[in-house]
Structure formats: C-alpha cells, structure tokens
Amino acid sequence: MTAEATPALVEPGAADPGRAGPAAGRGPRAGTAAAYLRYVAGKLAGAAVSLLAVLVTSFFLFRLIPGDPVKFMTGGRPVSAEQIAVYRREFGLDLPMWRQFTDYCGKALTGDLGTSYQFRAPVIDKITEALPNTLLLTGTAFVLYTALGVVLGTRSAWRNGRLGDRLNTGLALTLYSIPSFWLGLLLIIVLSVGVGPVPGLFPTGGMESGGEEGFAYVLDVAHHLVLPVLTLVAVEYGQTLLVTRSALLDEMGSDYLTTARAKGLRDDLVRRRHAVPNALLPTVTLIFVNLGRTVAGVILVETVFSWPGLGGLFYQALSVPDLPLVQGLFFVFASAVIVMNTLADLLYPLLDPRVGR
User: Fold this and answer.
1) Which of 248, 230, 228, 240 has the alpha carbon at shortest distance from 173?
2) What contacts 207, CB < 8 A, 6 or more positions away?
3) In which residue ranges of the chain is pLDDT below 70?
C-alpha cells in the first residue's frame, strides 16, 4: 500500500495528533456537562411540581378540620348576623371556595401567605418571628446527633459483631423507637420536677426565665435548651448511626480496602481516608433531609417544652383553626424538606460521577 493511499483510510481529524487530542478531550467533557445539566433540569422540575402539589394540599387539607374561625375571633360571645358577615368578608371567608383557592395561590406565589386570624398580623411576620427560635433548638440538636451518629456508626461498622457494636446498635434502635413527646415528658419528670433523691435541675419549659441580660441571658437560654436538645439527640442520632453503619459495612469487603491494608496502612487510616468517604453517600441524603426538618422544627418536642418556635406556633394555630397560619406553616415545612432533598440530589454527581449520567 502506497503512502499516498494511507490518509484516505484515516478519519478526518485523526491524521493530526496535535489536533485530535484536544478534540477528543472536549467531547466527553461536553457530554458529561450536558448530561449533568439535563439531570439538574429534571430535579428542579420535579421540585417545582412538588411545591405546587404542597401549595394545593395545604389549602384543601386543613379545611377538613372541624371548627369555625369566626367563633374564635368573636371569643364565643353572642354576635349578630351582620357582625359575622363583616368578619367573613374581612378574611375572604364569604367567597366561593374556588375564588379563595385562586386568591391564596396568587398571593402565595408573591410571598403573601395571608393574615393570621388570631394574631391579626401577616403570616410571614409570625413565621419570621418564630423561625430563629426553632433554628436554635433543632440546629443545635442537628449538629450534635449528626456528629454522634456518624462517629458511632463508623466505629460500630469497623467493629462489626463485637460487644461495642451490639450495645451501640441496640441502644440506637431502642431510643429511635421511643416517641419524642413521651421521652420529653419523662425527662421533665426526672430532671425538672425531680424523683426521689434526684433534684429538679432544669426548667420545665419555655425559652427564658425573664429579667436576664447579657451573658446571663445566654446562660439562661442554654439552661432551658438542655432538655429539648437532649430529647431530640436521643431520638434522632440512632437513624444516622444505622445508616452510616450499613453503608460502611457494604464497603468493608471492597478490594481497594484490602489493597490499602496490604500496603501497610493502619486500620484507622484505612477507615478515615478510604472507607468512610466512599460510604457517605446515603448519609449525605439523610443529613440533607434532617436539615429540612431543622427548618420545619419538631412540633411535638416544642409543644411539650413550650418552646416558642414554629412547631409550637403550628400547634397553637391548629387549635383555632387559624387557616392562613396553618397553611403557611405547612407550606414552609414541606418546602424546606423538598429544597433540601433537591440540594442533596444536585450534590450526588459531585460526590459520585456515576450519578446523573
């Protein structure tokens, strides 16, 4: 075969290695980026549909609650039909259901969640007022039970079947199965009221005693924070422990860990540098879900300890029923979980390139 015939058998662009290399390099990267963009677009579209479904559900669900908001607003006093009509007209309760729904959706899309019946204030203002208290409580608990669950789950998996693993797993399952409100009441009885020789050490509820300023105020809030945080940590850390332990056990028999040990690396280095990072994908999902719950708050725990957060506000609104406040809080709770789940999905391809292809 002549040299002149050889180029005819070579594909265009491949005869010049200097040009073929960059072109070949750009192709896969461009394809990966396009695949990731399609993955992101799909996840964002799914989140938008979920938020729309929550918006619709929050309107119709709570109208099944028995009770007349107008009777609450009148304080149970006998009022004339004209006064009742004025109240219904003021809050739009005299409109047909379809009109109330369209008005609610239109305002919600602009950030207006309505006006609270019992507080006569914008719902968004009441949520903004209570949100920092919820973040303080559940945020503190989140950091503690996440760290505790990851550390103990890692140690349990690495010592699978030993006494420490059995004790950790058994305690985690036991505490995880206990209702949070029941554990909270038990802690109040033992550590707040006192039982026998055990004196009451902590307040029974609330966020502050009042009258404190400066550093004394910080200590007072921390004192009130102990029991609700302890309740949340005790109930929630087991889930993180079990997920971390299960994921790490799946990695234990991998060839790369055997190779790392064969190279002479210590067990703690093999665990910390190789096994744990590759086993954290399920734990990352759980962490983001728990972050959403951090914003949502824990209704039962805040109610038991009279903590002035979103959970306590939601319970208070349900008892009326204060429909705009209940709807607004439900939308915020569900939106927090949806947003955090979406962020976890978008983070997956960065942790594991196989996801999203």
Assistant:
1) 240
2) 133, 221, 224, 225, 307, 308
3) 1-31, 65-77, 79, 253, 272, 274, 296-297, 351-357
Q: Which residues pair with 122 in a beta bridge?
A: 115
On the question of a cis peptide bond just before residue 321, with omega within 30 degrees of 0, the verdict is yes
User: Any bridge partners for residue 195, and if so which?
Assistant: 198
Dihedral sign for Cα atoms in the order 343, 349, 355, 357? positive
pTM: 0.76
Among the listed residues 284, 297, 335, 329, the one whose alpha carbon sits nearest the alpha carbon of residue 139? 297
Residue linked to tokens 């075969």? 1
C-beta separation of 220 from 212 below 8 A:
yes
- Structure-derived torsion over alpha carbons of residues 78, 79, 81, 87, reported in degrees to the nearest 10: -130
**Looking up tokens 């369209």, which residue turns up?**
102
Nearest Cα to 231, choosing from 333, 316, 144, 131? Answer: 144
The tokens describing 32, both together, are 């990966």
Name the amino acid, one letter, at 185. L
pLDDT of residue 73: 67
Q: What is the per-residue pLDDT across 84-124, written as a single tens digit (0 to 9) for each?
A: 777 777 777 777 888 888 888 888 888 888 888 888 888 99
**Whole-number Å distance between alpha carbons of 57 and 50:** 10
Helices (runs of H) and strands (runs of E) counted in the chain: 15, 0
Overall size of the chain counted in residues? 357
CA distance 114 to 59: 12
Whether the Cβ atoms of residue 145 and residue 237 lie closer than 8 Å to each other: yes
